[in-house]
Automatic annotation (TrEMBL), chain A:
PANTHER family assigned to the protein according to its UniProt record, in alphabetical order: DIPEPTIDE TRANSPORT SYSTEM PERMEASE PROTEIN DPPB-RELATED
Leader peptide range in chain numbering: none
Membrane topology: Multi-pass membrane protein
GO cellular-component term (any): plasma membrane
Organism: Teredinibacter turnerae (strain ATCC 39867 / T7901)
Record-given protein name: Oligopeptide transport system permease protein OppB
Lineage: Bacteria, Pseudomonadati, Pseudomonadota, Gammaproteobacteria, Cellvibrionales
Subcellular localization: Cell membrane
From TrEMBL, chain B:
PANTHER family in UniProt: PERIPLASMIC BINDING COMPONENT OF ABC TRANSPORTER, PERIPLASMIC OLIGOPEPTIDE-BINDING PROTEIN-RELATED
Source organism of this protein record: Teredinibacter turnerae (strain ATCC 39867 / T7901)
Membrane-crossing residue ranges in chain numbering: none
GO CC, any one term: ATP-binding cassette (ABC) transporter complex
GO biological process: peptide transport
Protein's UniProt name: Oligopeptide-binding protein OppA
Keyword Signal on entry: yes
Subcellular location(s) of the protein: Cell envelope
Residue ranges of every copy of the Solute-binding protein family domain listed in the record: 77-461
Protein family according to the UniProt entry: Belongs to the bacterial solute-binding protein 5 family.
Signal peptide (from-to): 1-22
Length: 309, 542
């Protein structure tokens, strides 16, 4: 198991290096530079700007310097926001993104598991079809459609909830969390339903029921742990996806999270900010997948044994 | 089991109902406490007046910094700013400014003439890479210093005669110099603060962060959370602090038009600042709540540029035919709907100055004849070409309308090409386009803002069009002090533009804001100058 963990950690290094290299090359290939503006920047000023940020160095030198600074934990200055470094910007946006992702994950897990269990308990009934139809809509409906719809309904029509902002008025976290978590709730519902159906047909469940164990106890104590295995496997990518994929929701609801910085960095050609956030998100995705694998192994004795060999 | 589900759903609904409990909106809270909430369009790049370039930045910076002169928001006439008065020498090239006797920074230090000398040296320094440094090249020696040809600032015509007297020498008489002093590049910065946080030319500096920033206008920085909120509060040391009524201003960086409009509707902001409101929303407000929408004429224009280095647009007859075939009245009435004025000349009329003449109109027959003369009778043989615009729904709608006009009137096919902002800028600057949309908003009230744009050597002339005659006229007009002669020179330049048509003017833009009726002393003006010091909030009846 320890060997497996070490191996997974080591393989992350070349993956991250590849991410850095590819991002560096791609952002430089994109047309337009960080200082392009509607009012043309005078040549002399542009020269001074490039010199100041070492953008006049040959590309391999720039890359080498960037990696060297990166190894020392320095993501460099932001070109867009001269008073802040990339590290500061990430530190500014990250807590909000984590908070939003956490609420969305809780919502997805809560609604998804309950819906999946209820659907599985009455398979092929109208209740099952209803739950799964809603889940399918949740999966298909992108957040840039769902968000404005919820705003129109709960924000503008009923005036129940605020339509934008974060930590500025009561209830402003509800709509963004639901919008972000909806698709994941739908996935969790489908995974839970599948897991429950499989487990509920097992002999030990039949035995328990034959012994007169209540339906609640059968579901909660005997079936749920096994049924949630696929959900746990999905939790890692889901957590990474919620953190790295929140930029649409952050933009719709004007949430000052990291996703919004990421999006703005791309539009501004803020090279260091694009690289910094990409590396950060790539690290998150690798980390969460790693944690999910470890958790899965911990919950599944068969898998644990095979890794131990 | 389903009873349990129903109970759960009921609990959820109750939880939501709990959230429906009405708490105060920003607007309600602001009205009670004289705090103005503004949707500021975007997050400012910086709060440093010598680094910043964008309008959202200026909206915040202008609340905290004041130049030597200020503009009256109703009349745009010059008013005292950091300078209480000024004199001009007989040769019209030397200005002597007398600072406000009570002028103070937000930390209580007096605002001195030396502060301005330091600040302008900073703004011109090549090491700082101020993108607006060229705005100071009217001053003697400024260009040489700004271009790095000399490092001796004493060669620049800016001198502090004493603590309260500043002398500025220009290279040539410049009729609009006093107006330009209200531009952020000319704003002062607090020298001791700048030195404390990295020195005069440190671009990456912490001096603009809350707690560090020292400013000289009616407001000072209290709070700045990126992508969320900037809060300024009154500067008790401001020389004219008695007229300030607001207890604070919040600038919210709301970059999406739709979100901004929703924020306004739901009472999160008193007013919006986005220059391009969604077209369909304008009609809705016009119909339902006309008291909330404000359409003020701007000193700005929206136009299409032709790539004159590329066939068939190198032929003036083609350019004229395309321009004459655009129904501008219809465009502003049916497409843009924001109170824009159809443009039959490039430069917007200056309310009290230059009134350019129109030398053409919407004339389909003439357009057809010109196109035939150029070798494309009834549009036959005219190559399909692209209209380039940056991704935005309003630009797309305008391009669609013009595409249709050209198809119907001239039987030629234009295709629409939208590009992301930086790609679009790159394409335009590399002259890799056929026809492209462009807009220009003036920094100060003078036609030079626009005529300079099409100088052969102008950095913003992306048309490839060059005219020595035009250059000579515009250069002469720049320094002509007799306004009658000056307008005559510009009129000749205007005639050349109509004869050569490197651009097709479409309309003079409007500044469209949503604003609560209880925001007082906020006046629409063509430069969109909105000094906050006299703005206040009246108690709302409802």
């Amino acid at each position: 198991m320890l060997k497996y963990i070490l191996l997974r950690l080591l393989t992350a290094i070349p993956v991250l290096f590849f991410v850095v290299l590819m991002t560096f090359v791609l952002v430089r290939l994109a047309p337009g530079g960080p200082f392009d503006a509607e009012r043309a920047v005078p040549a002399q000023v542009l020269e001074n700007l490039n010199k100041r940020y070492h953008l006049d160095d040959p590309m391999p030198v720039q890359f080498g310097n960037y990696v060297w600074n990166l190894l020392q934990g320095d993501f460099g200055p932001s070109y867009k926001y001269p008073s802040r470094t990339v590290t500061e910007l990430i530190a500014t946006g990250l807590p909000t993104t984590i908070e939003l992702g956490f609420y969305a994950l809780c919502f997805a897990a809560f609604l998804g598991i309950i819906s999946g269990v209820f659907a599985a308990l009455k398979p092929n009934s109208w209740q099952d079809y209803s739950f799964m139809s809603v889940a399918m809509i949740g999966i298909c409906l992108p957040s840039f459609v769902l968000g404005p719809l919820m705003i129109l309904l709960f924000g503008i029509q009923f005036e129940w909830l605020p339509v934008s902002g974060w930590d500025v008025s009561p209830g402003d976290k509800i709509l963004p969390s639901i919008t972000l978590g909806a698709a994941y709730a739908a996935y969790v519902a489908r995974l839970t339903r599948g897991g429950m159906l499989e487990i509920m047909s097992q002999d030990y469940i039949r035995t328990a029921r034959a012994k007169g164990v209540s339906r609640f106890n059968v579901v909660v104590h005997h079936a749920l742990r096994g049924a949630l295995m696929p959900v746990v496997a999905f939790a890692g990518p889901a957590a990474a996806g919620l953190l790295s994929g929140s930029f649409v929701v952050e933009t719709i609801f004007q949430i000052p999270g990291l996703g919004r910085f990421y999006l703005q960095a791309a539009f501004n050609r803020d090279y260091t900010m694009i690289l910094g956030t990409t590396i950060f998100f790539a690290s998150l995705i690798i980390f969460f997948n790693f944690v999910a694998d470890i958790l899965q192994a911990w919950m599944n004795p068969k898998l644990r044994q095979s890794l131990g060999k | 089991m389903f009873k349990q589900l129903a109970l759960l759903l009921a609990a959820g609904v109750l939880a939501l109902s709990g959230c429906s409990e009405k708490s105060l909106t920003n607007v309600e809270y602001g009205n009670q406490n004289q705090i103005l909430y503004i949707a500021n369009g975007d997050e400012p790049q910086a709060l440093d007046p010598h680094i910043t370039t964008g309008a959202p930045d200026f909206h915040v910076i202008s609340s905290m910094f004041e130049g030597l002169t200020a503009l009256n928001p109703q009349t745009l006439e010059l008013e005292p700013g950091a300078a209480a008065s000024w004199e001009l020498s007989d040769d019209l090239m030397t200005y002597t400014f007398h600072m406000q006797p009570e002028g103070r920074w937000s930390n209580g230090d007096p605002v001195t003439a030396q502060d301005f000398v330091y600040s302008w040296q900073r703004a011109m320094s090549p090491e700082l890479a101020n993108q607006y440094a060229y705005m100071m090249y009217f001053i003697e020696g400024a260009e040489a210093f700004g271009q790095g040809e000399t490092t001796d600032f004493s060669t620049v015509g800016v001198k502090a005669l004493d603590d309260k007297t500043l002398q500025v020498k220009l290279t040539a008489p410049t009729p609009y110099f006093l107006q330009i002093l209200d531009h952020h590049t000319y704003y002062p910065v607090h020298p001791a603060t700048i030195e404390k946080f990295g020195g005069m030319t440190a671009r990456v500096s912490k001096w603009t962060l809350p707690g560090n920033l020292v400013s000289n206008n009616a407001f000072k920085l209290k709070h700045w959370e990126l992508n969320k909120d900037i809060e300024v509060v009154p500067n008790e040391y401001y020389w004219d602090a008695d007229v300030v009524k607001l207890k604070g201003i919040h600038f919210n960086p709301i970059s999406q038009q739709q979100v901004e409009e929703r924020a306004f509707r739901s009472g999160q902001v008193h007013l919006t600042f986005t220059p391009q409101m969604a077209i369909e929303k304008i009609a809705t407000y016009d119909q339902n709540e006309p008291e909330l929408i404000h359409k003020d004429p701007g000193y700005s224009n929206y136009f299409y540029i032709f790539n004159t280095t590329r066939k068939p647009f190198d032929d003036v007859r083609v350019r004229k035919a395309l321009s004459y075939a655009i129904d501008r009245e219809s465009l502003v009435k049916r497409v843009t709907k924001g109170g824009e004025v159809p443009a039959y000349h490039f430069v917007p009329p200056d309310p009290e100055g230059h009134q350019p003449k129109s030398y053409f109109t919407y004339d389909i027959e003439k357009a057809k004849a010109l196109l035939a003369e150029a070798g494309f009778p009834n549009g036959e043989g005219f190559p399909a070409f692209d209209i380039l615009y940056n991704t935005h729904d309003n630009h797309r709608k305008i391009a669609l309308a013009i595409q249709q006009m050209w198809r119907t009137n001239l039987n030629i096919q234009a295709n629409l090409t939208n590009q992301e902002w930086k790609v679009y800028l790159n394409t335009q600057q590399n002259k890799d386009y056929d026809v492209s949309r462009k807009a220009w908003i003036a920094d100060y009230l003078d036609p030079s803002n626009f005529y300079d744009l099409l100088l052969s050597y102008g950095g913003n002339n992306d048309t490839g069009w060059k005219s020595a005659e035009y250059d000579a006229l515009v250069e002469e007009a720049q320094h002509e002090l007799d306004s009658t002669k000056r307008w005559a020179l510009y009129e000749q330049a205007n005639k050349i533009l109509s004869d050569e048509m490197p651009i097709a003017p479409l309309y003079f833009m409007s500044d469209i804001n949503l604003m609560r009726p209880n925001v007082k002393n906020w006046y629409g003006n063509v430069l969109q100058r909105h000094p906050y010091k006299t703005v206040y909030l009246e108690n709302e009846a409802k």
